[in-house]
């Protein structure tokens, strides 16, 4: 699996030595694995001596794409996220007028807010909107963001991408704090956004349980599954 992932990350044919270096496995051992992968059709050995993903890998990939519904998978994770963090959770997608809430999972402590399913969130004043812009930057040019605000917004988006999360501290609704993470599709774009909302400012603090839970459930870095996290030890 490490070898197959190396092909995905490099996105080009590789020599035996390059593969061994990428996966940090001795070349002789990699060669044995490659022989098995070639025999199964997952990898092809080119006349140039390099290796690349084969037809079977393509068939499996297409089948996975056809079944990979990141939005519904994210919705299924909301109840557990609410139970673990004690925060209200919402799922938003990009609608015709901007970030639109399509699922609202209430915590045991109810929030007094006009937000709910169908509400449209602002782009630059909500954690949800900022996440959509951070992982779909082309939308920044299409939306009506004041020219004077562009540099500030771009700077915030760079930090959000680096952190993997966006936070809002009473900037949209006084008394409410929000923490948002992208639900990435297979191409690394934000198909949806999951946002935790609370009256407790502690959720946006670095190292908080809410931050850890959200990053675990919806990771944004290499080596993990977008929108689903890694398998838990249990």
- Terminal Cα span: 21 Å
Given as residue ranges, the uncertain stretches (5+ residues, pLDDT < 50) are: 222-234
Structure summary, number of beta strands: 7
Return the average pLDDT rounded to an integer: 81
Range of helix content: 40-55%
Give the number of helices: 9
Q: Strand portion, in percent?
A: 15-25%
Oligomer: single chain
Helix/strand-derived category reads alpha+beta
Strand sequence of the main sheet, in spatial order?
A: 4-3-7-6-5
Outline: elongated
Main sheet specs: 5 strands, antiparallel
Question: What is the ordering of alpha helices and beta strands?
Answer: HHHEEHHEEHHHEEEH
What is the C-alpha radius of gyration, as a whole number of Å? 21 Å
Summarize the structure.
By secondary structure, the chain is α+β, with helices and mostly antiparallel strands. It contains nine helices and seven strands, in the order αααββααββαααβββα.
Question: What can you tell me about this protein's structure?
Answer:
With 234 residues, the protein is an alpha+beta fold. Helix content is 43%, strand content 18%. The chain has helices spanning 2-10, 16-23, 27-40, 55-67, 70-85, 127-135, 138-142, 147-163, 209-217, and strands at residues 43-45, 51-53, 88-95, 98-105, 166-169, 177-184, 190-198. The strands form 2 sheets. It has a 5-stranded antiparallel β-sheet, with helices on both faces. Strands 1-2 form a two-stranded antiparallel sheet. Helix 1 crosses helix 2 (16-23) and helix 5 (70-85) packs antiparallel against helix 9 (209-217). Residues 222-234 have low confidence and may be disordered.
